[in-house]
Amino acid sequence: MSTTIFYIGTYTQMLSPNLGGNGPGIYTIALNNYTGALTILHTTSITNAGYLVRNQQYLYSVVEVLPEQNPKVVAFQIHPKGRLQKINQQSINGSLPCHINYAHQSILVACYGSGSVHRFPVNSSGCILPQSQQFNHQGSSSNKERQEAPHAHQIAIHPNQQDVLVPDLGIDTLKSYHIQKDQLLSNPTKDIAIPNGYGPRHLVFHPNGTKAYLINELTAQVTTLSQEKHQFVAKHHQPSLPKTFKQTPSASAIRHHPTLPFLYVANRTLEAITIYYTQQDQLVFVDHLLLNGKTVREFNITPNGSWLIACLHDSNDVYVFRILANGMLQQTYHTNQILAPVCVCF
Length: 346
Hints:
Blueprint: E1 3-10, E2 25-32, E3 38-45, E4 52-55, E5 58-63, E6 72-78, E7 84-91, E8 97-103, E9 106-111, E10 116-121, E11 133-136, E12 156-157, E13 163-168, E14 173-180, E15 183-186, E16 192-193, E17 200-205, E18 211-216, E19 221-228, E20 231-239, E21 250-256, E22 262-268, E23 272-279, E24 282-290, E25 296-301, E26 307-312, E27 317-323, E28 329-335, E29 341-345
Antiparallel strand pairs: 1-2, 1-29, 2-3, 4-5, 5-6, 6-7, 8-9, 9-10, 10-11, 12-13, 13-14, 14-15, 14-16, 17-18, 18-19, 19-20, 21-22, 22-23, 23-24, 25-26, 26-27, 27-28
């Protein structure tokens, strides 16, 4: 195919004096698979589309707001050329929903503000049904400003589509869940403790499912986990920032290439993507790719593994990189016409 249609979610209003934006909601964008150029096809109005997930012809978004502003999960049908038509929405009994994922005809949502996980069934027409389950995390950790309470940050689904890990920044724990039939079950015996003050944010599984890599927001350490006796165990922690970096760490996103042995990690304040070669249990540093702009919040890799698209939401910058065979990134396109971009969904 000459083009790939995908979606970028944006912040449309301020959540705090230092977090938010003035985007339109969701951009439908065409990626030229030969040049890497982007073309905006449509925009869809929705408040603070902080994270998106696609399931075939349906797209789902959170409305990332405080409880008094009525957080929601919203369903859209995808029409030709990527145009979105709203199907329905459901309220979320939580605060600041920051991540969403899909498995077994269910939408799973992580709420940062309330430190909670929510499950919404989805019917055969893509319609979201009312919330059927909610799990409230408990605890705190050593960073009194950022870890005063639980802060669930992501729903990471294992390639087996059964096991789920939820990094909770506030309690330095990967909370474990298991999908069984039409239920999400808490699995506390498989919870994984992370060193105090690390602040686990996002996790990615290796494509073969035997390893996982966690980025810790508060230290920018990358934790390598290996599967032992049907349970993941933290094996190594290593920095993703240069030794010369003196500012406050603020790691944001992590992705593994779908076919090549490379891991990519984004760090705000440094404004860079760190590249690793994944070698058994070890990560071998390859490069720090510095970006021009402010707040590299998220990036994603196209399903065919050819392109990496990065979003810097405070400076309205979107970069497109060609992924080379050696894992290096070659910039092919840049635009500042996409306002407050915060997530990329294929």
